[in-house]
Amino acid sequence: MMNRRSLGRAAAALVATSLLGAPLVRAADEAPDAMIKRLSEETLAAIRADKSIQAGDIDKIMALVDSKIMPNVNFRRMTASAVGPAWRQATPQQRQRLQEEFKQLLIRTYSGALSQVNDQTISVKPLRASPDDKEVVVRSEVRGRGDPIQLEYRMEKTPGEGAGWKIYNLNVLGVWLVDTYRSQFAQEVNANGIDGLITALAARNKANAAPGKS
Questions:
Q1: d(Cα 148, Cα 150) in Å, to the nearest integer?
Q2: Domains of the chain and CATH, by start
Q3: Which among 149, 150, 154 is positioned nearest to 170, based on CA atoms?
Q4: CB-based contact 68:21 (threshold 8 Å)
């Protein structure tokens, strides 16, 4: 289990390299490891240049995520995987609400880590994959103060319009993000159903948005 200090550093790495600030520009034929390297470097530069983001301005972070991050993430798949089997029984309206609340939860959970982004550098490890692979794991290392942080991305190659590689899960210090939430969500769904999970997420987001919370 990660201690509080490690969680803080891991959160900073997670935000810095995947959830915040990634530019929309992306070539459809860009290799997944090259994409992660580019997004990581550009993201670190963007965060360092924006004092509002470093201060945890939620409105600005939300706008940034909507305009620049979501095109690089299969968030529907991420949410569906976190919700688990109950996703198949959810209505379109429930699925939309789940995605909205889950996104807010992630943003608010990690926004406080932005102030920790300062002297980190990113090293993307050589990709071991076949050119025909549709899903890969890209491994990277975040270096800064303290021990290096291992960060992995599960990615899929999407066809058609907007084709290219997209992130659908992240591993920070040996913990897969979606898997962590899946167990929490399953307990709520088993007790109170899909609507109960939506209500719980909304309440959690409201509590996180209260004065004094980050």
A1: 7
A2: 4-208 (3.10.450.710)
A3: 154
A4: yes
